[in-house]
Structures are given as C-alpha cells and as structure tokens.
Amino acid sequence: MSEQVEELEGSELGTKDFWENSYTRDIANYRNHGDVGEIWFDEDSQNRVITWIARQEDEIKEDDAIIDLGCGNGMMLIELAREGYTNLTGIDYSPKAIELSKTICRDQELPIKYKVVDLMSETEVKALGEFKVVHDKGTYDAISLHPNDAKTMRTHYIRHVHKMMRDDGLFVLTSCNWTESELVESFGELFQLRTLIPTPTFKFGGKVGSVVTSIVFVKK
C-alpha cells in the first residue's frame, strides 16, 4: 500500500520574488568582487553528481543533451563543460539567475545555453525538446515549499520532467527536504528508481540518515 506524502510547510524559498532578490545581490557581488554566489547544497553535493555522470561513459556521451533545472548561477553546467560535455542547457524561472549565469559563462568562454523557463508551463517545457540527462539540485525542493498549492505544482513538475526526458533518459535529483522513500513514492507513477548516489550519512537515536538524498530515476 502506498503511503501519503505529507506536504512541507510553505516558505519564501518557494517564491520567485525571493530568488529574484537573491540573484540581484549575487549579480552585484559578481560584478564587484568576482564572487559567483552560493552553490546550492555545497560543492560536495555538486561534485558527487558530476563524478557519477562522468562514470557513466558507456551510457552518457559527451555530446548528449543535458539540462539543469533551476540552474541558478550556472556553476553545475560550467563544471560539466570543464569535464568535456558539450550539449548543455540551463533553465531557471528567475531572469536574474539567467542574467548571472550568462555573465559567468561568457567570462569563462564556455558554450552553454541558458534560458528563462517556467517549469509550470507545459508550452515552455515542450519547446525545450528532449534530454538524455535531466538534473535538479534544489529546484524540486523549492517548488515543494511554495506557499500556495505546492502539491499541484509538484504534480506539474513531475509530469513535465517526464516529458522532457528521452525514453532512455536519466533524471538525477538531489533533495534535502525529501527522503529516498518519499521521492520514490512521489515519482512512482511515471518513474522507476535506477540507483542512489551515495551521500554522507549520520547516526542519531540508533537510526542512520543523510543530510541530502541524490537519486537517479528512469522512465517507466
């Protein structure tokens, strides 16, 4: 029997205004000090995913289409470009995030495509095409924190991610708000668990847990 996934309490982290204000500050810091801003969930979480992708060399080719959902400052894709991947797209619903990521990318002289896209818009998602790898580090979490009807937004997100994946595609998701079992339950109608990317664990009260969950899904 499936379990009901309990919704998270709403937060300003789930609103567009919060991220527009945050990236406005980051743009100023980058221009004034060269600071690219925060890497969501820290560099270790990012590097673990990049290492996992690089190890799938028989399945993920350097010219395969890879998209980063909620790309923020774009550093995830910049690091993938440095690893040799050439068909990279970053999307974010925050125009300020895309302005920052484009500026950093231009300064790095890397051929990465960045676009303003609302993941809740079926039309905008369809226009993106299909991808071998769909990556998300924190965007599903932010959507889950939206103060107004996050459950419906999560449903749209899951359906739209499914549509942007190739039939042989991989969906790599890192979350600090949801456990493995909750993610498998929420995505289970359209996705099947492929693997977990190991993350650091802690022990408390006799139980073992993780600060973040990095999970890989395939289409059903």
How would you sum up this structure, described in words?
The protein is built from 8 helices and 9 strands. It is of the alpha/beta class and 220 residues long. Helix 1 runs parallel beside helix 4. The model has no long low-confidence stretch (mean pLDDT 92). The strands form 2 sheets. It has a 7-stranded mixed sheet, sandwiched between helices. Belongs to the class I-like SAM-binding methyltransferase superfamily. EFM4 family. GO terms for molecular function: protein-lysine N-methyltransferase activity. It holds the Pfam family Methyltransf_31. It comes from Anopheles dirus.
Could you name the CATH homologous superfamily?
A: Vaccinia Virus protein VP39
**Morphology:** globular
DSSP helix fraction: 40-55%
The major pleated sheet works out as: 7 strands, mixed
DSSP, total strands: 9
Oligomeric status of the shown chains? single chain
- The number of domains: 1
Read across the widest sheet, the strand sequence of neighbours is: 3-2-1-4-5-9-6
Return the CATH architecture. 3-Layer(aba) Sandwich
Give average pLDDT, whole number.
Answer: 92
Count of helical segments? Answer: 8
